[in-house]
Amino acid sequence: MSESEPILFPHESGRSVATLPEAFQATVGMRPTAIALRTVGGIREVTWAEYGRRVEAIARGLAALGVGPRDTVGIMLTNRPEFHLVDTAALHLGAVPFSIYNTSSPQQIEYLFGNAGNAVVVTEQIFVPAVRAASTAVTTTIVVDGPAADAITLDDVEHSGATDFDFAAAWQAVRPEDLATIIYTSGTTGPPKGVEITHRNIISELTSLAEVVDVGFDDRVISYLPAAHIADRVSSHAANMVRGIQVTTVPDPREIGAALPEVHPTFFFGVPRVWQKIRAGIEAKLAEETSPVKKKLGAWAMRTGAAAAQAQLDGRTPNAIATTQHTLADKLVLQKVRSAIGMDQLTFAGSGAAAIPPEVLQFFLGLGIPVLEVWGMSETTGVSTMTTPENMRLGTVGKPVSGVEVTLADDGELLIRGPVVMRGYRKQPDKTAETIDSDGWLATGDIAEIDADGNVRIVDRKK
Fold it and tell me: What is the pTM of this model?
């Protein structure tokens, strides 16, 4: 398949969509009264109909400010509904919204905005001083949480659009090969590189994941990871637009433990430290139990669950006694623990961004929560390989998702090819050429092994 050939996502509406605006418009028409975006406790709720109306209003306002196709729009926001509204509105103009980390210093902002070339930034009052302290080409600052000096509010933007602006023509003009965002790398080996991600990349990623992750309007996800990271941008923001999954925003990731029991997500992605903290919380709670009977019952149930998990990992079928014990342990203890932590309705649980200790995966499997390990990069639009419930090969990152090819270079470096591979690094053609060869293979920088079944094991970093 050529790079110019669109990937078509089979949308629930019956239409095949090739861009994020096209998918969003199809989603809005499906269940207009359903809640699309919310905050914890339902303090704020945005229906799909309201989401659609506000996106159009904000897009008109941004267009009146001069934002158009291929223009970049900087975003420095906590996880809140306004991020989704603004980002989606910019996408409908053919513009390129991108997020930066809220911890960015003025010097970092200067570099990032200089590379992106944005004249508009959307932010919050608390971040305005850092944005102002940076020497950039920004001419318009939009604040989403009230007025600020020398800035306009999102409300101003939303109510200042030209009525004769052809909104439908704008989003219908967006093409799969157009940029959808820029993800900036961590910069651990030099200045951050701007990974240019197209609509085709994101639609390809969601199409691949659709074969193993079935989500829709009745599903729930928590957005708590930074939008500057590819994981949240795809798994919550893009999945919301394309598949209709409901997003609950959590502005402080430290509040995730309290948000889980309120939301009871059906889809949850966590980096290893999140899973480790949840595990530590469960173990601490069990240790605090004052009733000797309950404490003994809890320990027995956890041991029984762990034994069932080990049997599953070994490919063994437990005997009748073990099966009965596990069923009883689940009914008396394990399902109550899952409910208490808000993970009793999960249909997908994933971990990525770093290696997760196998004992953590075994712990959650014993609890009745199979956590799938995924591997990917910003440069591959997120997930490239993953384990599955049928292929829980601990110590590996599973097999390639549909549409992704993997191979090893002569020195063992993992190479990736497919429609999820980025367009390139922004304004760095030399770095792009170093990373993607003439045959489309992207050099990941990871040294890996691929077993006889096709499972990938990451063993080292090349540099």
Answer: 0.94
